[in-house]
Specification:
The protein contains seven helices and no strands. The protein has about 100 residues and is mainly alpha-helical.
Length: about 100
């Protein structure tokens, strides 16, 4: 499912807002399947999630372990750690991290 979602499609799907349960499911899927398979796509998914209405509020409501999961994913997706596989800039990465508040 992750590989089939483009960022703009995900944004339309979450147009009404992001719920905590949805965010947790995406984080678990990215952690288990998306990060290793395609880091650039994993970042685009997180970027799209960060643009969903209420993303910051939902992230603030996450349990500690889920916030840690999100922070770990973002740290692994820092452009400096991806070498040539990064499709995003440090500024884009920092913006997503700021939106999620981690």
């Amino acid at each position: 499912l992750l590989s089939m979602l483009a960022g703009e499609e995900l944004g339309r799907l979450l147009g009404a807002g992001l719920e905590e349960e949805e965010l947790v499911l995406f984080l678990r899927a990215l952690e288990a399947h998306g990060l290793a398979a395609n880091p650039a796509h994993a970042f685009h998914i997180l970027h799209a999630l960060s643009n969903a209405p209420r993303a910051g509020i939902v992230c603030a409501m996450l349990e500690r372990r889920d916030r840690a999961r999100l922070e770990t994913l973002l740290l692994k997706l820092h452009p400096a750690k991806l070498d040539d596989a990064a499709s995003h800039s440090v500024e884009q990465w920092a913006g997503v991290r700021k939106t999620f508040g981690v």
